[in-house]
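Notes, Module 5: Reading structure tokens.

Key idea: the token line is not a picture. It is a compressed description, and you learn to read it the same way you learned to read a sequence, by spotting repeated patterns. We will look at two proteins. The first is printed below with its tokens.
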Amino acid sequence: MPSASTTTDTIAASGLQGLNLSTTAAATVQGTSTANSLAEATSVNGASSGTSSVTYNDALAASGATNNTINADGSGLVSGIATTNSKATAESVLGSSTATAGVVTSSGITDLASLTVDGGLETLGKALNTISATAESVAAAASATSALSGLQQGLESTLIHSGADASLTGIASLLNTATADSAATSSTASSTALTLVGADIDTTTIGATGSLLGQVGFTAAATATNVAGTATATVGVDSSKGLLNSALIDIDAAATLKGLNVGTETAIASTTVGNSTATAGGADISYGIDLHQVAAGAGLTLTAGAQVDSAATASSVGGNSTANAGVGQLVTGMLADDIDAATASLTTQVFLNLDATASSTDGFSIAHAGDTVSKLTGLASGLDLDVLGAGSVTGLAQGTAQATASTVGSAGADLATATVDLTALGVDGLTFDTGAAAILTVTSKLVGNADASSVGVGPALADLTFSATGLKNSSLDSEADATITALASATGSLSADGVAGAASALGDFVAFGLNNTTTNLIVADAIGTVGGTAVISGSLDAATTLGIAIASGDFDATGAAFGSTGAGDFSLDIGGLATIKGQAQATGTVDASSVNANATATSGSLTSGGANGLMSTLIGLSGLNLDGDANGSVLGTANGSFNTTAESVAANATAWSAQSLTGLSALTLNLDGSGLITAIANDTSFVNAHSVGGTATATAQVDAIGLNVASITVGADLSLSAASTISSSTYSHSV
């Protein structure tokens, strides 16, 4: 008769608990804790179950309600390092296998209610977790679960004070893997984590120089393989933050703050007969820095960085495949409320890379890389940055996303769908005041592709939506020079290939270099240079043999847009030489081809064939209301290049393209000195429709305006140049 095998290993460890220390000299406190849990279960005829559980592992923590307090009249050295290993394996030949490995909480230093030293201070809290679950079965289900079910943190404190130089470091590192392998029924692998924090530092005061580092690193992977059943792999880290602060960080001298958060999520599901589902990074939230208030008596150098790579791969021979990467995922470099410093250099960077791949031989394949919620932000809205001297802010949001779906299934339900949907924002809602020169540099960049291929009668759909914005709804007030540079770019390619079914490629591209259309004022008492650039490059291709081919793309780019700050107010107030630029550029290629059915290529609308006056819109510079005390120059350019082609052998071919371009619009200019105004709109459009056995229809509509609506007052010479150039070619050919 079947004989089951069950193993359970449960442990908890702590190096030091409930410390209350007071000394008139120096204090050195070092705590370490190592927890290793192993559970192995094997069976031939019956089920096997291995469970490894670490309830807690802390190097320095509270004892019940007694927190830790350290008071030293001299210097202080406090460290806590917790190392945790939880491993579970389960193997069975004829029965099911279940492996569960988990850690509830782990901390290097936690429950630090008060750490006060009159001298220098060095504090290190580190939590290192390795969680692994492996389940194998030949004739039954295999399930592997590895989980951080609570909080893992390097350093957590309520109050820290140092009378001299201080260095505070908190590190949390997680390696979390789950592997399930079965030849029958099902394979399920799950690797999840609830909360990761590098350093959670509340009220912190430092009498001299201060260096703070909060760092999170995680690698999470789930692999599920099966022969005759389903395969499901799930990976997620719900919340992760490098440096967290909800009170005040006050540093009397030079301050260095770093919050870093780097993670990788990989889900792989493969099976021969059943369905496969792989999910990586669903609804996860990641921050480099999340802080409330910082005050630095001297120079502040702040670096916030977050990078998450999420990849999901699902493959099946005889079933359906679904891969989801980064659906609902949010990654932010920094969220902050208030920063005051003598001088300041802030750098916020965020990277999000999504990869979803689904393949099936006899079923549908669906791959999603991101969705309408998925977003990466360099600097989130709400920061009030006040700098006595010179200040600089650099914000970067860079994302890549690719989705690939392929099937050779013969049924109508055997579709191939690849979707990409991602939003990038460099800097949002910043209030930036400086007593000297101010520099604000922002970049938002998206690159990706969506590829769908179907050999049978099922449809192939490739859908890509990109929205990139450099700088949004921000104000700047500089008592000297001010320089603002904002760039947004969106680049993507789409390919939908069908044989017996329909092929559709849908691409929506939006790029906004500088979007200051709400009540935000930019002031420079001396030289002011402001520039916004938006660049789009999109390529769409839909091709099929027997089905309908549809390719539709919309390309909207705005270099810089401003709004009024109220009745009689200006959106820009420049005391010295003023240089304002807004530049938009878009390149769009849309191709649709079918051998036996209709082919429709549309550029300027997501509605096939165009409708209701919709068109791609390119604007160089709009809404500028500038008051300049000296000379000034204003440049607005919009450049477009579009190629739209539809081809069918046995049916109708329809090609439709529409663009509206404006170099400079809604300008209000008041200069005490001379003025130089340049407005340019250029567009090249090629539309071609070709059919052998049907009707060929080609339609093009292009509007280009160099300068549209302006009120100009200057105190000296004025040079104004406005030009538009359109090169439009439309061809239709039917045999």
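Here is the second protein, with the sequence above and the tokens below, as before.
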Amino acid sequence: MDKAYTPGDIERRIYERWESSGAFAPQDGTNGSGESYCIMLPPPNVTGTLHMGHAFQHTLMDTLTRWHRMRGHSTLWQPGTDHAGIATQMVVERQLGAEGKHRLDLGREKFIERVWQWKEQSGGTITRQMRRLGTSVDWSRDKFTMDPDLSRAVTEVFVRLHEEGLIYRGKRLVNWDPVLLTAVSDLEVLSEEENGSLWHIRYPIVGGEGHVVVATTRPETLLGDTAVAVNPDDERYQALIGKQLQLPLTGRTIPVIADAYVDAAFGSGCVKITPAHDFNDYEMGLRHNLPQINIFTPTAMLNDNAPEKYRGLDRFAARKQIVAELESQGLIEKIEPHKLKVPRGDRTNAVIEPYLTDQWYVKIAPLAEPALKAVEEGRTRFVPENWTKTYYEWMRNIKDWCVSRQLWWGHRIPAWYDEAGNIYVGRDEAEVRRKHALDARPLTQDPDVLDTWFSSALWPFSTLGWPDTTPELRKFYPTSVLVTGFDIIFFWVARMMMMGLKFMGDVPFRDVYITGLIRDEHGDKMSKSKGNVIDPLDIVDGIALEDLVAKRTTGLMQPHLAPGIEKNTRKQFPDGIAPFGTDALRFTFASLAGPSRDIRFDLARVGGYRNFCNKLWNGARFVMMTVEGAGAGGDLVGDAELSVADRWIISRFAATLAQVDSSLRDYRFDFAATALYEFTWYEFCDWYLELTKPVLQGEASTEAQKRGSRRTLVTVLEALLRALHPVMPFITEEIWQRVRPLAEPLIAAGHVRGARVRTESIMLASYPAATDHAADLQAETEVNWMKQFILAVRQIRGEMDIAPSRRIPLLLQNAGAADRALVEKHFAYLARLAGLESINVLEAGAAAPEAATAMLAELTLLVPMAGLIDPKAEIERLGKRIAKNDSDLAKLRGKLGNANFVKNAPPDVVASDRARVAELEAQNESFARQLERVRRLGPI
């Protein structure tokens, strides 16, 4: 093995071998249960690139997939991408714009051809990135939501729902993007707080004196008002209910109505009602049978329903003119600064307009009821369980689903119109004509396409071949788990539940694991505008500073932010980002994956797990050199005697595997990663490798004892690689291929329980089970005593600055019979690992020399100081350490004594400084005790 672990040299090579071998496809189950396991990849947008959230979720899905594959289940991780209607159409429209063209210049068919060309050229970016991160999806089954078979499924669902009366066409209020000229879903609307105004407007009472005052953030919409509402219990307005008000600037009158929705304590208690331009007003309008007056064109200009002088004005220009005229007529009571949530399109940044238009809708209540019941009955569970409440709340308050979009790219709605406006729905035009005897009548297909979420809702069964009854559909539906974010529980999870139950008669997945959100190291959401986005592949492969600056500042929707982003980037990454490799990033994600908590992502943690990769690599090199250097490859099979250290590491490995198994079953990736990390670093590499040296290098050791340690080194390392593989696939494959020739004779001879013989890749090997490794409480007890003994001696060495290479005498005080027996039994270990030349017991009543001491329960360990240290030099060294600590303490106490610092600094920074103060104070107390002991040695 090379001295250094270089991930860039091995990862691409290994992945190409995996993929070309077909190892990602479902294998026949090898555990005899016939059990299958399936995960559906949430299909990323074909326009997209992997962001940290993708990389995080893909790591968790791949961990589960590899774990179940190794456990012998027939495992499918189904990949695919989404056509992303709006996003993709916008990309191609921008390309046309750069050429001085518009999609209308091309026409629909030519434009769609252009989109397909772009998709073929650029649509593979995210799949290339997925390969780089080691995802073991079955690429032979890669799907795209616009593939012919998936499009057929979409049409089939639409037609069947329409035939049952569950899809209808109606005029409703929708989120309208006046730039894209289409309805958009709530998920495509970003509402952030902005500074605005609250206008208090007087509406005169018809046929009487006085007025009522209404407050609005959108005065231009008063042109579409059809009522003013008050609470029926508000005594101030009892006499006005049913009377008419003069609607300013319009010449119209509108009624005062009573509705319990109105909050009498808010503002004046009077609310203007604009049913065509506000979602709450729309619902109230339906309750009171109010007219719906749409005052905007699709591009948000004032239309012919507005007074003539406002027609053709942009809505914001109209606002200024309307406010000016209201002021001139004395109808403005007051104007107040006001912070409000402004809905903007996530693609265009245009202010979204509630807009009344004809759209296609899914009647949702009949579909929602079974989906709600399925979770209540436990057929699908949410992990963590608290998200069940969110699901219930949404499903119990669900509205009909607007599924039409005014775009060209997407699944075109299978509906046709004749010249009289009659609507016909069918699988194609030929079926419509046959079904309705329309042989000669001209028909025009609906120009709209379906919401992207409509095809995504069918993903768990359309990708498996529905509406045909395929072997894959029978085997893998329902799927095992969905891994997704909390933000799309309603938009995607709930709709998959409804469609799966409707068309498959069963839930689409047994578990829904909800992940947290990846944030930066300060807890801020990662976003392009904040300049804190990190491409996961830049962590894997590294990136130069200038390239990172360019990536963060190019294509900003707010270009004025670029200088600040560049400055912060240069400060944060003066040398760019070093390459960490895929496994270090994946292990970082797994270690942070708790119960859907938001994650603060810090590159320093990735660096720590890069060191972990090095630790594993170096540990494996030691094993290989130890075993191969002894010429013992075939000799491992002979008679062997296991030492206490061998039995201890096997027992500890069994406990680790039990922890990993229970953690992964509960989706506690963080617990599983921690268990594997601590075993690998501390128990296997730090302790066990050292504990083998007294046996392997000891003259008194028998050949059977040496063979026992060499065999244990190989078998535990080989099984540990299999245990780590689901999280760290590349480094484990690379090392395993080298260890396998040593392990296979042992597997064949039955010395390794539960392992499969002659698999070509670690990913097809069996996952190690706790029950295949013997627990040994006695060995654990004895080795734990040795570890505490050795650490106590090392603590004395550290405190007294005794060189590790210097062998020292040790005295034992208050040594009981058990302690004496353990010292005698394990003297070789203690002497080697603690660097001892002798261990002697002080009999009861014997005077102890001046010594550095440590306690081990009731046993006292003493290292005589005479002859070990130069008292003068030691006093000088300790004095310098105390002075340095005092200086650092003064600075830290000054910071923490500053109330502004404590109030304004990030809490983790304050906590870190306080912990450092406690650490330095403890060090100084220890140094003071050491000084006292040194001074007692006599005059300097």
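Summary for the second protein:
- The chain has 31 helices and 29 strands.
- The CA atoms of residues 657 and 770 lie 5 Å apart.
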